[in-house]
Amino acid sequence: MTVAKSGAEKEMVRLPAEWEPHKATHLAWPATWRDWPGKFNAARWAFVEFARHIAEVEMVRLAVNDERDEKTARRMLSDAHVNMDNLLFHRFPLDRGWMRDISPCFVYDARGRRRCVRFRFNGWAKYDNHKRDARWASEIATALRLPNVEASHAGNAVILEGGALDCNGRGALLTTEECLLDQQCQTRNPGLTKKDYEACFRKYLGITQVIWLNKGICGDDTHGHVDDICRFVAPDTVVCCYEQNARAHNYAALAENMERLQGARLESGQRIKYVPLPMPAPLHFRGVLLPASYANFYILNGIVVVPTFNDSNDREALGILAEVFPKRRVIGIHAVDLVWGFGTLHCLSHEEPA
Protein backbone atom coordinates (compact mmCIF):
# COMPACT_ATOMS: atom_id res chain seq x y z
CA MET A 1 0.00 0.00 0.00
CA THR A 2 1.42 3.38 -0.98
CA VAL A 3 0.29 6.91 -0.19
CA ALA A 4 1.41 9.73 -2.46
CA LYS A 5 3.39 12.55 -0.87
CA SER A 6 1.91 15.35 -2.94
CA GLY A 7 -1.73 16.42 -2.66
CA ALA A 8 -1.34 18.42 -5.86
CA GLU A 9 -0.86 15.26 -7.92
CA LYS A 10 -4.11 13.89 -6.55
CA GLU A 11 -6.04 16.98 -7.69
CA MET A 12 -4.80 16.86 -11.28
CA VAL A 13 -6.97 13.93 -12.32
CA ARG A 14 -9.51 11.63 -10.68
CA LEU A 15 -10.78 8.17 -11.55
CA PRO A 16 -14.45 8.12 -10.47
CA ALA A 17 -16.07 5.25 -8.61
CA GLU A 18 -18.53 3.06 -10.51
CA TRP A 19 -21.45 4.20 -8.35
CA GLU A 20 -21.06 7.81 -9.45
CA PRO A 21 -23.59 9.02 -12.10
CA HIS A 22 -23.25 7.49 -15.55
CA LYS A 23 -23.89 9.12 -18.88
CA ALA A 24 -24.06 5.69 -20.54
CA THR A 25 -22.95 2.09 -20.39
CA HIS A 26 -20.78 0.69 -23.17
CA LEU A 27 -21.43 -2.87 -24.37
CA ALA A 28 -20.38 -4.94 -27.38
CA TRP A 29 -22.78 -7.30 -29.14
CA PRO A 30 -21.58 -10.92 -28.73
CA ALA A 31 -20.36 -11.86 -32.19
CA THR A 32 -17.69 -14.52 -31.57
CA TRP A 33 -19.21 -17.98 -31.17
CA ARG A 34 -15.82 -19.34 -30.10
CA ASP A 35 -16.20 -17.51 -26.79
CA TRP A 36 -19.31 -19.58 -25.99
CA PRO A 37 -18.98 -22.82 -28.00
CA GLY A 38 -22.19 -24.78 -27.71
CA LYS A 39 -23.88 -21.94 -25.79
CA PHE A 40 -23.56 -19.00 -28.16
CA ASN A 41 -27.27 -18.41 -28.68
CA ALA A 42 -28.05 -18.86 -24.99
CA ALA A 43 -25.27 -16.42 -24.08
CA ARG A 44 -26.71 -13.87 -26.50
CA TRP A 45 -30.13 -14.04 -24.86
CA ALA A 46 -28.52 -13.64 -21.44
CA PHE A 47 -26.70 -10.59 -22.81
CA VAL A 48 -30.02 -9.22 -24.10
CA GLU A 49 -31.53 -9.55 -20.62
CA PHE A 50 -28.55 -7.66 -19.20
CA ALA A 51 -28.98 -4.90 -21.80
CA ARG A 52 -32.71 -4.71 -21.06
CA HIS A 53 -32.10 -3.80 -17.44
CA ILE A 54 -29.41 -1.26 -18.30
CA ALA A 55 -31.59 0.47 -20.91
CA GLU A 56 -34.29 0.96 -18.28
CA VAL A 57 -32.07 3.35 -16.32
CA GLU A 58 -29.47 4.80 -18.70
CA MET A 59 -28.23 5.03 -22.27
CA VAL A 60 -26.49 2.03 -23.83
CA ARG A 61 -23.78 2.52 -26.43
CA LEU A 62 -23.63 -0.83 -28.21
CA ALA A 63 -20.70 -1.71 -30.45
CA VAL A 64 -21.56 -4.02 -33.37
CA ASN A 65 -19.16 -5.50 -35.89
CA ASP A 66 -21.16 -4.70 -39.01
CA GLU A 67 -24.60 -4.12 -40.53
CA ARG A 68 -25.52 -7.79 -40.26
CA ASP A 69 -24.75 -7.94 -36.55
CA GLU A 70 -26.66 -4.72 -35.99
CA LYS A 71 -29.76 -6.17 -37.65
CA THR A 72 -29.51 -9.30 -35.49
CA ALA A 73 -29.00 -7.24 -32.36
CA ARG A 74 -31.95 -4.97 -33.13
CA ARG A 75 -34.22 -7.95 -33.73
CA MET A 76 -33.27 -9.78 -30.53
CA LEU A 77 -33.32 -6.66 -28.38
CA SER A 78 -36.72 -5.66 -29.76
CA ASP A 79 -38.08 -9.17 -29.16
CA ALA A 80 -37.10 -8.81 -25.50
CA HIS A 81 -38.78 -5.38 -25.24
CA VAL A 82 -35.56 -3.52 -24.59
CA ASN A 83 -36.02 0.26 -24.55
CA MET A 84 -34.62 0.94 -28.02
CA ASP A 85 -34.82 4.70 -27.45
CA ASN A 86 -31.94 4.29 -25.01
CA LEU A 87 -29.70 2.42 -27.46
CA LEU A 88 -26.99 3.96 -29.62
CA PHE A 89 -25.30 1.63 -32.12
CA HIS A 90 -21.64 2.04 -32.97
CA ARG A 91 -20.30 -0.01 -35.87
CA PHE A 92 -16.72 -1.08 -35.29
CA PRO A 93 -15.23 -4.57 -35.84
CA LEU A 94 -14.01 -6.21 -32.64
CA ASP A 95 -12.35 -9.52 -31.83
CA ARG A 96 -14.17 -10.42 -28.61
CA GLY A 97 -15.58 -7.22 -27.18
CA TRP A 98 -15.18 -7.56 -23.39
CA MET A 99 -15.72 -3.87 -22.76
CA ARG A 100 -14.39 -3.77 -19.22
CA ASP A 101 -10.93 -4.69 -20.43
CA ILE A 102 -10.63 -2.97 -23.80
CA SER A 103 -12.15 0.41 -22.94
CA PRO A 104 -10.22 3.48 -21.82
CA CYS A 105 -10.37 4.66 -18.24
CA PHE A 106 -12.62 7.72 -18.08
CA VAL A 107 -11.20 10.28 -15.67
CA TYR A 108 -11.97 13.85 -14.60
CA ASP A 109 -9.38 16.61 -14.76
CA ALA A 110 -9.02 19.36 -12.15
CA ARG A 111 -11.89 21.30 -13.75
CA GLY A 112 -14.23 18.31 -13.81
CA ARG A 113 -13.86 17.73 -17.54
CA ARG A 114 -13.79 14.17 -18.83
CA ARG A 115 -10.82 12.64 -20.59
CA CYS A 116 -9.71 9.15 -21.59
CA VAL A 117 -6.62 7.29 -20.40
CA ARG A 118 -5.71 4.48 -22.74
CA PHE A 119 -3.79 1.42 -21.62
CA ARG A 120 -2.50 -1.07 -24.19
CA PHE A 121 -4.49 -4.29 -24.60
CA ASN A 122 -2.73 -7.50 -25.60
CA GLY A 123 -5.44 -10.14 -25.18
CA TRP A 124 -4.69 -10.72 -21.49
CA ALA A 125 -1.19 -11.81 -22.57
CA LYS A 126 -2.87 -15.03 -23.68
CA TYR A 127 -4.91 -14.72 -26.90
CA ASP A 128 -3.62 -13.76 -30.33
CA ASN A 129 -6.94 -12.41 -31.63
CA HIS A 130 -6.84 -9.04 -29.91
CA LYS A 131 -5.62 -6.48 -32.45
CA ARG A 132 -9.07 -5.13 -33.31
CA ASP A 133 -10.03 -4.98 -29.64
CA ALA A 134 -6.81 -3.06 -28.99
CA ARG A 135 -8.06 -0.24 -31.23
CA TRP A 136 -11.35 0.25 -29.38
CA ALA A 137 -10.04 2.62 -26.69
CA SER A 138 -8.88 5.14 -29.29
CA GLU A 139 -12.01 4.61 -31.40
CA ILE A 140 -14.44 5.42 -28.60
CA ALA A 141 -12.41 8.37 -27.33
CA THR A 142 -12.51 9.86 -30.83
CA ALA A 143 -16.23 9.16 -31.21
CA LEU A 144 -16.94 10.91 -27.91
CA ARG A 145 -14.58 13.76 -28.80
CA LEU A 146 -12.66 13.36 -25.56
CA PRO A 147 -8.97 14.05 -25.00
CA ASN A 148 -7.09 10.75 -25.12
CA VAL A 149 -3.69 9.95 -23.68
CA GLU A 150 -1.79 6.65 -23.61
CA ALA A 151 -0.43 5.60 -20.23
CA SER A 152 3.28 4.87 -20.19
CA HIS A 153 6.09 4.31 -17.73
CA ALA A 154 9.82 4.77 -18.34
CA GLY A 155 9.10 5.37 -22.00
CA ASN A 156 7.06 2.20 -22.54
CA ALA A 157 3.31 1.88 -23.02
CA VAL A 158 1.65 0.12 -20.06
CA ILE A 159 -0.50 -2.94 -20.75
CA LEU A 160 -3.53 -3.23 -18.48
CA GLU A 161 -7.20 -4.26 -18.48
CA GLY A 162 -10.02 -2.53 -16.66
CA GLY A 163 -11.00 -5.68 -14.77
CA ALA A 164 -7.63 -5.61 -13.03
CA LEU A 165 -8.62 -2.45 -11.14
CA ASP A 166 -11.37 -1.27 -8.82
CA CYS A 167 -11.45 2.15 -7.16
CA ASN A 168 -13.39 4.15 -4.59
CA GLY A 169 -13.34 7.47 -6.46
CA ARG A 170 -11.22 9.06 -3.74
CA GLY A 171 -7.77 7.88 -4.65
CA ALA A 172 -7.77 4.27 -3.44
CA LEU A 173 -7.46 1.35 -5.84
CA LEU A 174 -7.64 -2.45 -5.51
CA THR A 175 -5.62 -4.84 -7.66
CA THR A 176 -3.80 -8.19 -7.40
CA GLU A 177 -0.18 -9.23 -7.48
CA GLU A 178 -1.07 -12.31 -9.52
CA CYS A 179 -2.36 -10.23 -12.43
CA LEU A 180 0.17 -7.41 -12.53
CA LEU A 181 3.37 -8.82 -11.06
CA ASP A 182 3.63 -12.46 -12.21
CA GLN A 183 6.72 -12.69 -14.40
CA GLN A 184 6.11 -16.27 -15.61
CA CYS A 185 2.43 -16.47 -16.52
CA GLN A 186 0.49 -13.98 -18.67
CA THR A 187 3.02 -11.25 -18.00
CA ARG A 188 1.67 -7.88 -19.10
CA ASN A 189 4.62 -5.62 -18.40
CA PRO A 190 7.90 -7.50 -17.85
CA GLY A 191 9.98 -5.97 -15.09
CA LEU A 192 7.42 -3.49 -13.77
CA THR A 193 7.35 -3.39 -9.98
CA LYS A 194 4.74 -2.29 -7.47
CA LYS A 195 6.35 1.14 -7.28
CA ASP A 196 6.28 1.42 -11.08
CA TYR A 197 2.57 0.61 -11.27
CA GLU A 198 1.80 2.93 -8.37
CA ALA A 199 3.63 5.79 -10.07
CA CYS A 200 1.71 5.13 -13.30
CA PHE A 201 -1.65 5.00 -11.51
CA ARG A 202 -0.84 8.19 -9.62
CA LYS A 203 0.13 10.06 -12.78
CA TYR A 204 -2.69 8.98 -15.08
CA LEU A 205 -5.56 8.03 -12.73
CA GLY A 206 -4.97 10.21 -9.68
CA ILE A 207 -4.53 7.15 -7.46
CA THR A 208 -2.78 7.93 -4.19
CA GLN A 209 -3.11 4.50 -2.58
CA VAL A 210 -2.89 1.00 -4.04
CA ILE A 211 -4.17 -1.95 -2.01
CA TRP A 212 -2.48 -5.11 -3.28
CA LEU A 213 -4.36 -8.36 -2.84
CA ASN A 214 -2.72 -11.67 -3.70
CA LYS A 215 -4.56 -13.93 -6.14
CA GLY A 216 -7.80 -14.15 -8.07
CA ILE A 217 -10.05 -17.19 -8.39
CA CYS A 218 -9.47 -20.47 -10.18
CA GLY A 219 -10.88 -20.64 -13.68
CA ASP A 220 -10.24 -16.95 -14.36
CA ASP A 221 -8.35 -16.91 -17.65
CA THR A 222 -7.27 -13.29 -17.04
CA HIS A 223 -4.95 -14.60 -14.29
CA GLY A 224 -6.17 -12.67 -11.32
CA HIS A 225 -8.60 -9.87 -12.14
CA VAL A 226 -9.77 -8.17 -8.97
CA ASP A 227 -13.36 -7.71 -10.17
CA ASP A 228 -14.03 -11.38 -9.47
CA ILE A 229 -12.88 -11.25 -5.85
CA CYS A 230 -13.13 -7.82 -4.19
CA ARG A 231 -14.98 -4.59 -5.01
CA PHE A 232 -15.45 -1.19 -3.44
CA VAL A 233 -19.12 -0.55 -2.59
CA ALA A 234 -18.53 2.75 -0.75
CA PRO A 235 -15.50 5.01 -0.24
CA ASP A 236 -14.52 3.11 2.92
CA THR A 237 -16.10 -0.32 2.30
CA VAL A 238 -15.45 -3.35 0.11
CA VAL A 239 -17.13 -6.69 -0.40
CA CYS A 240 -14.65 -9.55 -0.50
CA CYS A 241 -15.33 -13.11 -1.62
CA TYR A 242 -14.74 -16.06 0.69
CA GLU A 243 -15.14 -19.83 0.72
CA GLN A 244 -16.62 -21.65 3.70
CA ASN A 245 -15.31 -25.05 2.63
CA ALA A 246 -11.61 -25.37 3.51
CA ARG A 247 -11.24 -27.95 0.72
CA ALA A 248 -12.58 -25.60 -1.97
CA HIS A 249 -10.23 -24.59 -4.79
CA ASN A 250 -10.27 -20.91 -3.82
CA TYR A 251 -10.28 -21.22 -0.03
CA ALA A 252 -6.62 -20.38 0.71
CA ALA A 253 -6.28 -17.55 -1.82
CA LEU A 254 -9.49 -15.83 -0.73
CA ALA A 255 -8.61 -16.26 2.95
CA GLU A 256 -5.28 -14.54 2.36
CA ASN A 257 -6.98 -11.66 0.57
CA MET A 258 -9.29 -11.26 3.55
CA GLU A 259 -6.30 -11.17 5.89
CA ARG A 260 -4.69 -8.43 3.84
CA LEU A 261 -7.86 -6.36 4.03
CA GLN A 262 -7.92 -6.74 7.80
CA GLY A 263 -4.66 -4.83 8.00
CA ALA A 264 -5.40 -2.32 5.26
CA ARG A 265 -6.06 1.33 5.98
CA LEU A 266 -7.24 4.17 3.82
CA GLU A 267 -5.13 7.24 3.20
CA SER A 268 -6.91 8.93 6.10
CA GLY A 269 -5.73 6.18 8.44
CA GLN A 270 -9.20 4.66 8.71
CA ARG A 271 -9.44 0.89 8.49
CA ILE A 272 -11.20 -0.46 5.44
CA LYS A 273 -14.57 -1.99 6.26
CA TYR A 274 -15.05 -5.31 4.53
CA VAL A 275 -18.20 -7.33 4.00
CA PRO A 276 -17.76 -11.07 3.28
CA LEU A 277 -19.46 -12.19 0.06
CA PRO A 278 -19.94 -15.95 -0.49
CA MET A 279 -18.86 -17.81 -3.58
CA PRO A 280 -21.26 -20.04 -5.50
CA ALA A 281 -20.51 -23.74 -5.60
CA PRO A 282 -17.85 -24.67 -8.19
CA LEU A 283 -19.38 -24.46 -11.65
CA HIS A 284 -18.07 -26.68 -14.45
CA PHE A 285 -18.90 -27.12 -18.11
CA ARG A 286 -17.26 -29.66 -20.40
CA GLY A 287 -14.71 -30.42 -17.73
CA VAL A 288 -13.69 -26.76 -17.27
CA LEU A 289 -13.91 -24.91 -13.94
CA LEU A 290 -15.55 -21.54 -14.65
CA PRO A 291 -14.91 -18.22 -12.84
CA ALA A 292 -18.38 -17.87 -11.34
CA SER A 293 -18.45 -15.04 -8.80
CA TYR A 294 -21.04 -12.69 -7.36
CA ALA A 295 -18.35 -9.97 -7.18
CA ASN A 296 -18.72 -9.48 -10.94
CA PHE A 297 -21.75 -7.23 -10.36
CA TYR A 298 -22.22 -3.94 -12.19
CA ILE A 299 -23.36 -0.68 -10.55
CA LEU A 300 -25.71 1.54 -12.60
CA ASN A 301 -27.84 4.63 -12.09
CA GLY A 302 -30.30 3.42 -9.46
CA ILE A 303 -29.72 -0.35 -9.76
CA VAL A 304 -27.07 -3.02 -9.27
CA VAL A 305 -27.14 -6.08 -11.52
CA VAL A 306 -25.63 -9.24 -10.09
CA PRO A 307 -24.73 -12.52 -11.82
CA THR A 308 -26.54 -15.55 -10.41
CA PHE A 309 -25.81 -19.22 -10.98
CA ASN A 310 -28.82 -21.33 -9.92
CA ASP A 311 -26.98 -21.77 -6.64
CA SER A 312 -28.12 -21.91 -3.04
CA ASN A 313 -25.92 -18.89 -2.29
CA ASP A 314 -27.63 -16.71 -4.91
CA ARG A 315 -30.17 -15.42 -2.42
CA GLU A 316 -27.58 -14.71 0.27
CA ALA A 317 -25.34 -12.81 -2.15
CA LEU A 318 -28.26 -10.72 -3.42
CA GLY A 319 -29.27 -9.95 0.15
CA ILE A 320 -25.77 -8.84 1.13
CA LEU A 321 -25.49 -6.56 -1.87
CA ALA A 322 -28.95 -5.13 -1.19
CA GLU A 323 -27.74 -4.17 2.28
CA VAL A 324 -24.58 -2.44 1.04
CA PHE A 325 -26.51 -0.64 -1.71
CA PRO A 326 -29.63 0.46 0.22
CA LYS A 327 -30.53 3.22 -2.28
CA ARG A 328 -30.37 0.97 -5.35
CA ARG A 329 -32.48 -1.93 -6.54
CA VAL A 330 -30.44 -5.12 -6.67
CA ILE A 331 -31.36 -7.42 -9.58
CA GLY A 332 -30.06 -10.90 -10.25
CA ILE A 333 -29.35 -11.98 -13.82
CA HIS A 334 -28.89 -15.63 -14.75
CA ALA A 335 -25.23 -15.97 -15.80
CA VAL A 336 -24.57 -19.71 -16.09
CA ASP A 337 -24.40 -19.41 -19.86
CA LEU A 338 -22.46 -16.13 -19.88
CA VAL A 339 -19.71 -17.42 -17.60
CA TRP A 340 -18.83 -20.12 -20.14
CA GLY A 341 -17.11 -17.18 -21.90
CA PHE A 342 -14.99 -16.73 -18.70
CA GLY A 343 -16.69 -13.50 -17.69
CA THR A 344 -20.09 -12.11 -16.75
CA LEU A 345 -21.75 -8.73 -16.19
CA HIS A 346 -18.90 -6.51 -15.05
CA CYS A 347 -16.55 -7.95 -17.66
CA LEU A 348 -19.04 -7.22 -20.45
CA SER A 349 -19.69 -3.59 -19.53
CA HIS A 350 -17.96 -0.28 -19.00
CA GLU A 351 -19.44 2.88 -17.54
CA GLU A 352 -19.11 6.28 -19.19
CA PRO A 353 -19.29 8.79 -16.33
CA ALA A 354 -21.58 11.79 -16.55
What does the overall shape look like? globular
Largest sheet: 4 strands, mixed
Determine the CATH topology.
L-arginine/glycine Amidinotransferase, Chain A
Number of helices: 10
How many structural domains can be distinguished in the coordinates? 1
Order of strands across the widest beta sheet? 1-5-6-7
Strand content: 15-25%
Helicity level? 25-40%
CATH class: Alpha Beta
Between the first and last Cα atoms, what is the distance in angstroms? 30 Å
What's the quaternary structure here? single chain
CATH architecture grouping:
5-stranded Propeller
Tell me what you see in this structure.
The chain contains 10 helices and 21 strands. A 4-stranded mixed beta sheet has the order 1-5-6-7, sandwiched between helices. It has a 4-stranded mixed beta sheet with strand order 4-3-2-21. It is α/β, with parallel strands linked by helices and 354 residues long. The radius of gyration is 19 Å and the shape is globular. The chain has one domain (7-353): L-arginine/glycine Amidinotransferase, Chain A. Strand 18 and strand 19 (303-308) form a beta hairpin. The two termini are 30 Å apart. The protein has helices at 7-12, 40-57, 67-79, 99-102, 136-143, 177-181, 194-205, 251-262, 314-324, 345-348, and strands at residues 13-14, 22-28, 59-64, 87-91, 105-109, 114-118, 148-150, 152-153, 156-157, 166-167, 172-176, 209-213, 230-234, 237-242, 273-278, 284-285, 288-289, 298-299, 303-308, 329-334, 350-353. Helices cover 26% and strands 25% of the residues.
